[in-house]
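Kindly inspect the following:
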Amino acid sequence: MTVTSHRVLWLVLWLALAISPVGLQAALTPEKLYQRVLPSVMSLEVENQKGERFVGSAVLGLADDVALTTWHVVADARFVWASFADGQRVKVIGCIDHDSGRDVALLKLEKKLPHRQAVLCREMQPIASRAYVIGAPKGYDFSISDGLISQIRTVDGFAQYQVSCPISPGNSGSPVLNQRGEVIGLAAWTKADAQNVNFAIPTREFSQLRVSKPPSTWDQLSAAQLTSTTTSIQTRQSARQAVVGEIPAGDYSDFRKRLDESVGEPVTIMVQEKGQTNVYRFTMK
């Protein structure tokens, strides 16, 4: 073989390695992964129609002013603010599109935030691959946890990730990441009476949402939409724990009074008992 042939062969091998998935998509250390993804992660401060406040999470993606989260975090929102790890706080002006059945939503930020978008991966990841979650468990924002994709299960008619990453109330909408720092899903719910049996909505479910739609403000989301959404969410929440943040509670007499005054309106109730948290949403009759 001539010298020229050797050079051509080495060039071909080098190019093959350079453009291979291994070459382009090397796994990151947890430290580098966290630093890379953190600018895109936000904590959501939500005030619902009754004036109650709780915490969720979201991630910037698809556009410089679009956030991905789980729909149940904002289903009955009146005001929403997004806070970032660098201290920046941005108003969320409304919802671009959502699918209550798949529990996914696209939110519109008040302004564009360049150079912060996370990389989305719509391909389903293999079982037993490592996964990371960055969010606000119990309000401790921008916390990272790790685990494995325990299984892929069909729930509510579509495939969802079962993950062993520890998640808690406040993690709803938190990005679930692969070892390359790509968003593969969003933390959504956890199995009641189980340890680290948690579920995430795959990123590919956002493909059905229309990012080009004009956003609906929170005031424009009708009571009819909220009623149908909260009913489906309530049905899904049996034997599940929601992972939205805690809602401050009043005393029992105040609670009964507020229920009596809420006839015909959507209501959200969080029940905490024996270390477990369940969220129920329904319309008072």
